[in-house]
Specification:
The structure holds 2 protein chains of 2 kinds.
Chain A (H helix, E strand, L loop, with lengths): L13 H14 L3 E7 L2 E6 L4 H10 L5 E9 L34 E8 L7 E8 L4 E3 L8 H12 L2 E3 L25 H5 L4 H4 L18
Parallel strand pairs in A: 2-5, 6-7
Antiparallel strand pairs in A: 1-2, 3-4, 4-5
Chain B lengths: L18 H4 L16 E5 L11 E7 L2 E8 L7 H5 L4 H8 L7 H16 L5 H29 L4 H21 L8 E2 L2 E2 L7 H24 L2 H7 L7 H7 L4 H4 L7 H4 L21 H25 L18 E9 L2 E9 L7 E5 L1 H7 L1 H4 L5 H11 L3 H5 L1
Antiparallel strand pairs in B: 1-2, 2-3, 4-5, 6-7, 7-8
Helix pairs in contact in B: 4-5, 5-6, 5-7, 5-12, 5-15, 6-7, 7-12, 12-15
The chains are: A alpha/beta, B alpha+beta.
């Protein structure tokens, strides 16, 4: 849902429009798509321009502050054991694989937010596609703080950051297998113990005189 | 190679400190004349100075650190994964426990993100009460810091004052929300309840107490020569490097960066209605971080006093559907929390729960600078640097 938003749809803030214009001038063809997310600009760049994007943000946009780098797995989560049991209170995600704002070429994406400490409300949300070989350009040479964020994305998604000095486990023990934030990594607690949502709608003691409808607080 | 050009600890407070003169400290060559051999020292995961389960592996030459490697994850609870299995109203329970000293402030950006996607705006009274409680959390968090920082350099008395004064503020938060630490009080579209009777008068009294105790801390701790000797020109973070590491909040303002998301970010809550000031300190050392937080505690108390006078009447909840479904979309909301920038990147696919939530917590980035910052310092300074950065383990590990 990029540019052709209907009237009254989301619009860029003044600062974000400036960020977008500067990025377009500097990166040109390297921008695959851009979109709006609640006033912020989301720019999706080609994977081979990922590090250059960071450099441009830092040098040309004044975005000297790295907020975070993380990954996304767009695959829909597999069905849970208790789904289909008739309990509709559990959060169920759509089954088809859709890609959010600014789109994606495949299942994995890396995204980051950079901000400016000198200009008011100036920030950019950047995304890049991650191909099947899971290789991403590292930002460590641009933003020193990318180190830990990339280690986290490496262990949580399996992304390999080219140019990162030492991809080691950050949170998880060294012998841990698997990538927990991937959608196909099961949350064992949910597999073992079903969603307790049904318990929540049991009638409360003193919740009402009649037997039929439990009192639901408005 | 000698170490004679390095400053001697203890001699520094008398001179005018020019931070640029000491920035090479972290890149310092360690003494290789005495071949003492390196020693690897393991600090933690349980240590009084680490506020939880942070483990530091430091390689030492004598008393000087050659390399430091923080080992985190002892408290990793996988909140980013858990959010994908919860509904939006249930998630506030989780995020209360990220930075447990200022839980209320954690809730605000997440709830704002959901509200922004649903195009709901909380009524003005709810916004004011949210701002008051956020600032009360900030005061509670900082009062603990102001006392505890003294404790880390060997002064036990301020810690008792810190805990005592924080308790007054926690009592206020408890009176409103029913919980001292985990209020779980925000709802999408407003708040669970209004302020209780007598809150405004109580709050005014407590803010006067806070202002008085800030003066006390200024005399007792910040003005203390021993405290200054232990903290001045120790652990200097250069502004540009701090920003590149994502160090935020008071830690970055103590390095002279005039940047506060309450004023400079995307506007949120009612900070634009208030008359207040962003405090900075040019030095970037542990003392500067203490000083900035001290001023910010005062500033927050003044803000609360202003808001109590301006508090509008009206409802505290907007019209919200009974079953909360958040429309498809993405939003990034970040706020100035006591420990720094707290942000949530929420991706929704139109269900009752989010598809993906990236939690950007302040302490994680604040602590990621430690390997650089600890290089070349002496062991006792590790403790003051850790205390001065002021992190919460739940906020690092999430």
């Amino acid at each position: 849902m990029p540019d052709e938003t209907p009237e009254g749809g989301p619009t860029l803030t003044e600062e974000s429009a400036g960020v977008l214009a500067a990025l377009q001038a500097e990166l040109g063809d390297a921008i695959v798509e851009h979109a709006i997310a609640a006033g912020d600009v989301v720019v999706r760049v080609k994977p081979d321009a990922w590090r250059r994007t960071a450099q441009v943000c830092k040098d040309k946009l004044g975005c000297d502050y790295l907020s975070f780098i993380a990954g996304i797995d767009w695959m829909p989560a597999p069905l849970l054991a208790d789904e289909g049991s008739g309990d509709t209170s559990a959060p169920v995600q759509p089954r088809e694989q859709t890609y959010g704002v600014a789109g994606s070429a495949g299942r994995y994406q890396a995204f980051a937010v950079v901000e400016s400490t000198r200009r008011k409300a100036t920030r950019a949300i950047l995304k890049t596609d991650v191909a099947d070989d899971l290789r991403v350009e590292s930002w460590v040479s641009v933003y020193a703080g990318a180190d830990w964020h990339e280690r986290e994305a490496w262990e949580m998604y399996g992304f390999v950051f080219d140019g990162h000095p030492s991809l080691r486990h950050l949170y998880l023990p060294a012998e841990f297998e698997g990538h927990p934030l991937r959608k196909d990594f099961p949350l064992l607690a949910r597999e073992v113990k079903p969603w307790p949502g049904l318990v929540d709608v049991e009638p409360m003691p003193g919740g009402g005189d009649d037997e039929e409808a439990p009192a639901v607080p408005e | 190679m000698t170490t004679t050009d390095l400053p001697e600890p203890g001699k520094l407070p008398d001179v005018d400190v020019d931070p640029s003169a000491f920035r090479h400290l972290a890149d310092a060559q360690v003494n290789v004349e005495l071949d003492t051999g390196d020693m690897v020292l393991n600090i933690g995961p349980q240590h009084p100075a680490t506020h939880g389960t942070l483990r530091l592996v430091v390689r030492l030459d004598g008393e000087r650190v050659i390399a430091a490697d923080p080992i985190i994850g002892y408290m990793h609870r996988g909140y980013e994964k858990l959010t994908e299995f919860r509904t939006y109203p249930q998630i506030t329970t989780l995020i209360n426990r990220i930075d447990w000293l200022s839980s209320f402030a954690n809730e605000v950006p997440f709830i704002s993100a959901a509200e922004s996607l649903m195009s709901i705006e909380a009524p003005p009274r709810a916004q004011y009460i949210r701002t008051i409680l956020t600032e009360l959390s900030r005061i509670a968090t900082f009062l603990l810091f102001l006392g505890e920082m003294g404790l880390q350099v060997g002064a036990i008395t301020p810690a008792f004052y810190g805990f005592r004064d924080r308790e007054y503020v926690l009592n206020l938060i408890e009176a409103v929300t029913g919980g001292r630490f985990h209020p779980n009080f925000n709802r999408i579209g407003g708040l669970k309840d209004d302020l209780p009777w007598g809150f405004i008068a109580d709050c005014r009294g407590t803010m006067q107490k806070v202002l008085a105790s800030c003066d006390e801390f200024e005399d007792l701790v910040a003005g203390n020569p021993i405290f200054q000797a232990r903290t001045r020109s120790i652990g200097i973070i250069p502004a540009e490097l701090g920003a590149a590491y994502g160090v935020s909040g008071s830690n970055l303002r103590a390095s002279g960066v005039d940047w506060d998301l309450r004023r400079d970010g995307v506007p949120y809550l009612v900070y634009n209605d208030l008359d207040w000031k962003v405090w900075t300190h040019p030095d970037g050392d542990s003392f500067a971080r203490y000083w900035v937080r001290l001023q910010e505690t005062r500033e927050s108390a003044r803000m609360v006093l202003q808001m109590l006078d301006m508090l509008p009447a009206g409802p505290i909840m907007a019209k919200v559907p009974r079953i909360i479904k958040v429309p498809e979309g993405e939003v990034f909301v970040n706020t100035e929390n006591p420990l720094g920038e707290m942000g949530y990147y929420v991706i929704s696919k139109g269900a009752t729960g989010p598809f993906r939530v990236k939690i950007r917590s302040a302490s994680f980035s604040n602590v990621s600078i430690l390997p650089w910052l600890l290089r070349g310092v002496y062991i006792p300074d590790i403790i003051t640097i850790l205390a001065g950065l002021y992190f919460i383990l739940g906020d690092i590990d999430r």
